[in-house]
Design a protein that fits this description.
The chain is α+β, with helices and mostly antiparallel strands and 202 residues long. It is 34% helix and 34% strand. The chain has six helices and eight strands; from the N terminus they run βαααββαββαβαββ. Strands 1, 2, 3, 4, 5, 6, 7 and 8 form an eight-stranded mixed sheet that branches. Strand 2 and strand 3 form a beta hairpin. It starts with a strand and ends with a strand.
């Protein structure tokens, strides 16, 4: 996979300033998921500055100019994975990186959360990258981070929609739990999100 440059949003802010960064982000559009659009344009800068999460812009060339083809956001979270929903192989892998809670019958571990993932539909930029490629780049970044910190898992949360579940399943994720929406999580279908886990290979 060639032709993409990953830009850390926090480093971009430090290099060109917050106003210029906001202007660049204002050109991002994702009508398929308003939450993905609003996060990048409204919340991502503050989250990056405060260290809650770090957003990575995937830049591609369009008519000899760099544009945002998509982005992903990573955060470190603590999760509980029920042993009842795992295969024998998954249990063995998780056991190496987690603490087993016998009362909950679940594995407890810290893992990177792919908190946001979205393509830029402004001006047809979504044609510059596929969803599979964008998710691959997010997982590749997780693998690079884990080379320094350790760990082998990443997870994400998505709406319970067949096309989304199928997309993530085809890319190596498996559902392990449901999380009820927080009060400030609006604009999403249903009252919960499906949590999905992936074993990240080096």
């Amino acid at each position: 996979m060639t032709g993409y440059k990953i830009v850390n949003l926090k480093l971009m802010i430090d290099a060109v300033g917050e106003d210029t960064t906001k202007a660049v982000l204002s050109n991002f559009s994702c009508p398929l998921n308003k939450d993905v659009e609003d996060f990048l344009r409204i919340k991502a800068i503050d989250f990056a500055k405060q260290g809650f999460s770090q957003t990575h812009l995937v830049m591609a060339s369009y008519r000899d100019k760099p544009v945002i083809a998509g982005y992903f956001t990573l955060a470190n979270k603590y999760i509980t994975v029920s042993a009842k929903k795992l295969s024998g192989t998954q249990k063995k892998r998780l056991a190496k990186f987690s603490i087993f809670d016998h009362q909950l019958c679940a594995y407890c571990l810290s893992a990177p959360l792919i908190a946001q993932l979205g393509k830029n539909y402004a001006n047809g930029y979504d044609q510059l990258i596929t969803g599979d490629e964008l998710l691959y780049l997010a997982c590749k970044k997780v693998a690079a981070i884990q080379m320094d910190l350790g760990g082998k898992f990443a997870y994400l949360e998505c709406e319970d929609k067949p096309r989304l579940i199928e997309f993530y399943t085809q890319n190596g994720f498996c559902a392990f739990e449901r999380r009820r929406l927080d009060k400030d999580e609006t604009g999403l279908d249903g009252d919960y999100l499906v949590q999905m886990l992936k074993y990240i290979k080096s």
